TrEMBL record:
One of its GO terms (biological process) is cell adhesion. Belongs to the bacterial solute-binding protein 9 family. This is Manganese ABC transporter, periplasmic-binding protein SitA. Its main location: other. Keywords: Metal-binding, Signal, Transport.
Length: 269
């Protein structure tokens, strides 16, 4: 998501390299030697922060201590407005990109940082920023219109891991993640039993897999619901912690979000 943002702002004045591609889980991601040398050679390093990239915290701290321009984009946000979480060392839920307004705030912040590093091209970056912000504004209207098709009682989102709390807060969904908020903890038998009962009690029509999390936990859940003589379908694949493949619509922030909301609404309607 950050790669998409920086490419949009930087345009052809900035060479951008994203370390984590499509389908990659940031909670478990470890830096390779090649990554470390890319980080050393970078003029600016952008990362999400709030311990999303749990295994990279030390690498980022080391880069920063050595004078590299290392920026957590979540620093742009007012911490008091974040959703708390006991599962992360930051004490906050780090899946901040699913709040569209946060994404706009962080777009301003990243533009400031790029402009500070390359003031000569400031006007260019600001103009790109405004074009990106306009896309985000249109996206927000599109998402709201699509979600309005879904009655309140059907707004229950069951996914592989708890990445959608900011989405749920904004659009009035109850959100249930099988694996908890980080994929570092596996779903246990009790989690599956509890959520199976929840699905039956609330007549949930569909549950969702995620592109960056193995699908087996969600399939185990579907099987457990069947064992109770109920039916829940797999509503499709959502992009939670990674975008789709580069060069596809889902490989962009806007396309990813539209895909997710269309998938969710169409499956739960
Ligand atoms: Zn996550």
């Amino acid at each position: 998501m950050i790669t998409d943002m920086v490419e949009n702002i930087g345009g052809d004045k900035v060479q951008v390299e994203g370390l984590m591609g499509s389908g990659v889980d940031p909670h478990l991601y470890k830096a390779s030697e090649g990554d470390v040398s890319k980080l050393y050679n970078a003029d600016i390093i952008f990362y999400s922060g709030l311990h999303l990239e749990g295994k990279l915290v030390e690498v980022f701290e080391k880069m920063s201590a050595q004078g590299k321009n290392t920026i957590a984009i979540s620093d742009a946000l007012d911490k008091k407005t974040l959703i708390g979480s006991e599962y992360f060392a930051s004490n906050y839920d780090p899946h901040i990109w699913f709040d569209v307004d946060y994404w706009a705030t962080m777009t301003h912040y990243v533009t400031e940082k790029i402009t500070e590093a390359d003031p000569e091209n400031a006007a260019y970056y600001v103009s790109n920023r405004d074009a990106y912000l306009e896309k985000i504004k249109v996206l927000k209207d599109d998402l709201t219109a699509k979600i309005d098709e879904l009655p309140q009682e059907k707004r229950i989102l069951v996914t592989a891991h708890d990445a959608f709390n900011y989405f749920g807060r904004r659009f009035g969904f109850e959100v249930v993640g099988l694996q908890g908020i980080s994929t570092a903890t596996e779903a246990g038998v009790q989690d599956v039993q509890r959520i199976t009962q929840f699905i039956i009690d609330n007549k949930v029509k569909a549950v969702f897999i995620e592109s960056s999390v193995p699908r087996r936990t969600v399939e185990a859940l579907q099987a457990a619901v069947r064992d109770q003589n109920h039916e829940v379908s797999i509503g499709g694949e959502l992009y939670s912690d990674a975008l789709g493949s580069a060069g596809t619509a889902e490989g962009t922030y806007v396309g990813m979000y539209k895909h997710n909301v269309e998938t969710i609404v169409n499956a739960l309607k």
